[in-house]
Structures are given as C-alpha cells and as structure tokens.
Amino acid sequence: MSTKRQTPIGLDALAAPAVTSARSPFAHQDSQVLDHLDFIGRSRPGKRALVMALGLLSPQNRRDQILRVAYIAFKETVRTLDGQAFQMSTGDIVWTGKINSPEDLKHSIERMRLLFAEDPLIQSEAGSNTSRFATWYTLENQYNDLLSAVKRIAVTAEEQRESAAARARAEGRQATRQPMDPTTLAKLEALLGRTDLSNLMRRQAIANVAGSGQPMALIRELTISIADLQSSVAPDIDLFGDQWLFQRLTQTLDRRMLAALARADDQTLTQQVSLNLNVSTILSPEFVAYDQMVKPEHRSSVVIEMQKIDIFADPGAFLFARDFLKERGYKLALDGVTFMVLPFIDREKLGLDLIKVQYSSDMVVDMPGQGIHRMKEYVERCGRARMILYRIEDERALKFGQGFGISLFQGRYIDKLLGQRKA
Q1: Do residues 133 and 202 share a domain?
Q2: Neighbours of 171 (CB within 10 A)
Q3: How far is CA 155 from the centre of its chain?
Q4: What distance in Å separates the CA atoms of residue 26 and residue 198, rounded to the nearest whole number?
C-alpha cells in the first residue's frame, strides 16, 4: 500500500482481511482456467490478462472464507467489462478480456490491495514500480508466459493439496475430534435447539477509562463461548475445521442467543448491551422476536456489532439491515477493524455509531504511513468518543490508546481493573 495520503471511503473498503484447505472450494477452476486459456489462445489480438497473486499472501489472509469474499468483490468491480474471472485453488485470481488499457482495472486492483493492506506482500510493494501481487500480460506477445505462470500455480495447488492431505492423515492418527461436515452440523444444530445455552453466555465489559481513574463499565458485550460449547456440547467435533460450516454454526448460535434474550426474565433487555451478530441473523425471525421484546425506549441502549467481512460479503444485505436497525433505534458498530484498514473506513458514510479497533503491538511502531504516525488523525476523524480499542491485555495497550484520546476500551486487562474495583 502506498504511503501517500489515502481518501477514506465507505463500503468499497470493507473487507477483512489463515491457509486454503485441501478441500478448497476453488479447486475445480484450476482446469477451467487452463481450458479457457487454450480456447482464447486461438484469438489473441487485443486481449489482456491479469493475475493477482493472492496465493502469495500470508497464511492468515488465505482462509477460504477470505479468498471467496475477495473473489466476489473483484468480480463485482469487473462485471461491466468484456472479460472473465477465475479463482484457482491457491486463491490466485486470473482475469482475461478485451480492454483498452490496464487503467480500466486500476480500481479493481486497488480495491484488492485495500482488502489486504496489512499483508507483508502489499506493504513490501509500497512505492515500488514493480508488483508481484498484480501481473499484466498482453496475450498477443506474452501468451506463453501467461500459460507458464498459470501452470506453475496449478502445480503449486496440487502440491499444497497433497501436503495438506498428508498432514491430515498424520494428524488423524492422533486427533480425538472428528471434522465437522454438513451432516454433523445438522445434528449439532438440532441439539442446540434443545439445549439451554444460558450457562454458555458470557459478558465482557466495554469501559470508559479516563486518565488514571478507575474504569467505568458502560456496555456489556454478550457472546456465547465457543470454547465452552466445544467442551460441553461437542467435545468430539472440530468446530473450526471448516470455515463455511463454522460460519453457519455462528449464525445458529446468534439466533439461539437472541431466543434466550427474548425469554430473559432479568434486566438484560434494559441494560446497555452489545450483540455481535451476522447480517443474516439481523434479517431473521429470531431477531424480529427479540426486537418485539425490547421496549422502544431501550433500543438505543443496544449496540449491534457486525464484522467487516460479513458486511462486505453482501453489501446490499448490510445496507438493508443497517437501515432497519437505525429505524428501530439501535446503535451500530463495526467490529474487527485493524489499524492498517482504519484509514479507508468512513464511519459517517457507513452510518455507524462506533468502530471497534483491534489493538496490536504493530501499532506502536512509528514508520511512515504506518504505526502511530497517523493514528491521531484517524482517531480525530472517527471521533474520540466513537472508537473502542479492544484486546487490551496490559497497561501498555491502555496507555497507548489513552495517548490518542481514546477513552473506550475492552479486554482482559480492563476486566482485571474492573474486578479490582469491585474487590
């Protein structure tokens, strides 16, 4: 990512930016790409190709879920062009088509760079005139180069699948948990429908910490503990083995939590609470039932948190859910924002009340365009009272946030301070 000043944008910048599994959902496209190149190789004049090397990103940015969202986002930006896009099982995106100039896809490439702005590959190319992330080919005179590059990717993909399969076999001899498949998920969902999950519900405070004063809890984030669910309900199932099935499971848990809240006989519905929900959950009957239980005057005390990747996966659904929530009187927060993505998010344009930024030790590194160099500007633009710094594990992290005027914090260190206050 370039170190020059970037203009913050709204939905276009939302994505999250972790290794492709042996069962990659893109595997079938490897042969399709080669067949496609064979076909267009018979008529090359005027055609270009772009290869975006998502397979070179760091492991945490190569989860199937992340790669799929990136592919969907890329296809949306090129849908008006005369061309075709594929995603190989390494995650690499291959686009071919007829365009006047590479400039026609400049926006698409920059959008992908924003999605993975924190990745070492993107950061290493800042200010460089060459790029390993995005490579252009003119088919008329570089067709063989393109074909060789795609074949190398296909071979790498096959090697990765074989290596992953070998690891899985080796781990399988020692593993005690079975991988979650659709049948197992269906049985687990049926079990959850009959299980009281109230004992798995956890509350973590979002607190105001002013100066050296004692923290004051303002909001309680309600979540269902996956770790406790794993040990108590599904000890023999690997809940995290498949990203898509796990995403479906979180949607089920969202709805079970809402159902529990709708039946709550305590003061939960009148307290300042935060609920981290999938967009699909907000549009579900369970949320409607929960909404009907919350008195209109109490809805402003409820913050609905949404993950940026969930928003980016379906912008239309997000906009509909956002408008519905705002009309009903709820507050909205964007969760999972990292410092490197923060410059590209316009809170007001997205209609958000709060932004939750994840603390990282990388934030204290003062480098041009990174670290603390621009942090104050970002905080001021977002609004000091509108930013929550979370994953506060020690005093250093707390003091760092306070140094930029942030007053809302969440994390184990904050829990410890609040415990000391009660003692």
Answers
A1: no
A2: 9
A3: 29
A4: 39
